[in-house]
Amino acid sequence: MSTSRAVMAVALVATLGFCWAVPAAATKFLMRGITQPNCKGIGELLKASGPADDKAWETLVCHASCLNELSFALVQDGRCPDGVWAGAAKSLGEGSGAVLAAAEKKDVEAARAAFKTVTDACKSCHDAHKKSK
Predict the structure, then answer these.
(1) Dihedrals φ, ψ of 25, to 5°?
(2) 3-class DSSP state for residue 30?
(3) What domains can be seen in the chain, in order of their start residue?
(4) Residue 99: which of 130, 54, 57 has the closest Cα?
(5) 127 Cα distance to chain centroid
(6) Distance separating alpha carbons of residues 44 and 48, to the nearest angstrom
(7) What is the pLDDT of residues 21-71, one digit of tens each?
(8) Phi, psi of 82 (to 5 degrees)
(9) Tens digit of pLDDT for each residue in 77-126?
(10) Which residues contact 62 (CB under 8 A, 6 or more apart)?
(11) Is this model's pTM higher than 0.90 or not?
(12) In this structure, what is the dihedral angle of CA atoms 100, 102, 108, 110, given to the nearest 10 degrees?
């Protein structure tokens, strides 16, 4: 390996190491930036007769997908303090995955039932961990 390639390789590894060392987002910002807008979006789309058209169904899929990804993030980077949190994150993943599957089939009743699992997961974790204001 030439010297210039070796220097570039060391620089790349150092840069990637720095990127991976950047701290994860604070949980409160994940809640504000991901959970709240996506839960609100799902709740709005599931009112009345449900999503009105293909674009609305796709938006429902998008919201459920974001919550599903969040369920994994909530147990990474030292965020998971106990079994209540871990169980709620698992239920969030299962519920959001079920909303996603129902939305892909355009099944509003199944999506509503699955969304109840999502909101129950949020409540169980908040009851145990969210500080009262």
Answers:
(1) -60, 145
(2) helix
(3) 25-129 (1.20.120.10)
(4) 57
(5) 19
(6) 9
(7) 555 788 999 999 999 999 999 999 999 999 999 999 999 999 999 999 999
(8) -165, 180
(9) 888 899 999 999 999 999 999 999 999 999 999 999 999 999 999 999 99
(10) none
(11) no
(12) -110
